[in-house]
Specification:
Structural class: mainly beta
Number of domains: 2
CATH superfamily of the largest domain: Immunoglobulins
Strand content: over 45%
Order of helices and strands: EEEEEEEEEEEEEE
Helix content: under 10%
Radius of gyration: 25 Å
Largest sheet: 6 strands, mixed
Protein name: Fibronectin type-III domain-containing protein
CATH class of the largest domain: Mainly Beta
Number of helices: 0
Number of strands: 14
Low-confidence stretches: none
């Protein structure tokens, strides 16, 4: 019968018997870079270990983005191009993906930037917007929301 020993950086090795090929640690792993490996042993104690494989633990969400434009309560004139700007969030893992939410409609921001160029007309009304920052582990933080109002362009 084969047994397996699962090891990870900073953890106590765990022996799994039989056909178990999946293990979830029962203790929290440290934030940041870690590594793990598996050793398989047969009935005569002949063992072979895998190499150490890196992985990262990320349970912290990015900080909230800071909204810049349109500013709170701003009146913007009808335009086929609206520009939404914010100060980027901070995340220890460094990559953050942004989604701008305007009146419950989501707009993905390409290239993890700090500007959304929205090429569409918005209704003449008050609108609510915020920015959601998500890291690669799926941890997300929303900025506080703000309102702006679209008015018709008058010549």
């Amino acid at each position: 019968m084969t047994s397996y020993v699962v090891e990870w950086s900073g953890g106590t090795p765990v022996t799994l018997a039989g056909t178990v090929t999946r293990y979830t640690p029962t203790t929290n792993l440290p934030e940041g870079a870690n590594s793990w490996r598996v050793t398989a042993c047969d009935a005569s104690a002949q063992c072979t270990s895998s190499g150490w494989a890196p992985f990262s633990v990320d349970v912290q969400a990015p900080t909230a983005p800071f909204l810049m434009a349109p500013s709170p309560g701003e009146i913007v004139w009808e335009n086929p191009l609206y520009i939404f700007e914010w100060v980027n969030a901070y995340d220890d893992q460094h990559f953050v993906q942004y989604t701008v939410v305007i009146d419950d409609q989501q707009y993905e921001v390409p290239d993890s930037g700090e500007v959304l160029y929205l090429e569409q007309f918005l209704d003449y009304a008050e609108h609510t917007w915020f920015v959601r920052a998500c890291d690669l582990a799926g941890n997300c933080t929303d900025s506080p929301s703000q309102t702006f109002t679209v008015r018709p362009y008058i010549r």
